[in-house]
Amino acid sequence: MRLRERFISLTLLLLCAMAGSAILALAQPGQQHDPLAFLKRAITEANAPALTAQQETQLNDLITNFRQAQPSGPDDALEAARTAYNNAILAGDLAAAQAQAQVIANRIAALANARLQAEAKFDIDVLAVLKSGGQLDPLRQKFGDDRVLGLVSSLAGHPFGGRPGFGSGFAPGPRGAGLGRNQPGNGR
Question: What DSSP character marks residue 179?
């Protein structure tokens, strides 16, 4: 019985120590996630030239500026139209509900259009940086255009391969397995 209690105590102590060390490791100041890590890995797999310090700075600036330009909360006009739409439905006013539905649809379209335009500029700017350093062509040859565009979109904060409005279509495989489709011999 005493041996069992010691074993349980020791096990709990080890679990607490492991959890504590994991928390401390995550809380270490100065350790930041490299937003270019996935891109760098893809560049290595494509046997392309490594990013220069200037390219890394340019890409990090593009990422920061793009993310800071994105709205941080709900759109006030859209929220007001949704509230008016709900109120019209609750009041049984079909004409008012239909009018607000049109306002909602127009606002969603305007927001989507603005977002797609910003993403197009971001993607083109990133591709220009990669082209200037000689990384773009090897990436396209290794992974194909769809994967390269997915990789670029991931820098903007989208899940890899999740191009807005275009569906996902790709999840990276295990380490060392390459970045996905359009590779010789993978049957896709």
Answer: S
Instruction: Quote the Cα angle for 171-55-177, to 5°.
Output: 25
By CB atoms closer than 10 A (0-12, 13-18, 19+), residue 153 is: buried
CA separation for the pair 185, 46 (Å, rounded): 15
Under 8 Å between Cβ of 45 and 179: yes
At 42, which amino acid appears?
A
Give every CB contact of residue 62 below 8 A, 6+ residues apart in sequence. Answer: 122, 125, 126, 129, 155
Cα–Cα distance for residue pair 77/129, rounded to 1 Å: 36
What is the DSSP track for 109-172? HHHHHHHHHHHHHHHHHHHHHHHHTT-HHHHHHHHHHHHHHHHHHHHTTPPTT-BTTTB-----
Q: Which amino acid, 161? A: G
CA distance 149 to 68: 21
Condensed to tens digits (0 to 9), the pLDDT of residues 44-95 reads 999 999 999 999 999 999 999 999 998 888 899 999 999 999 999 999 999 9
Residue with tokens 């079909």: 94
**Which residue, 43, 47, 71, 81, is CA-closest to 59?**
43
Retrieve residue 88's tokens: 């019209």
Residue 131: pLDDT over 90:
yes
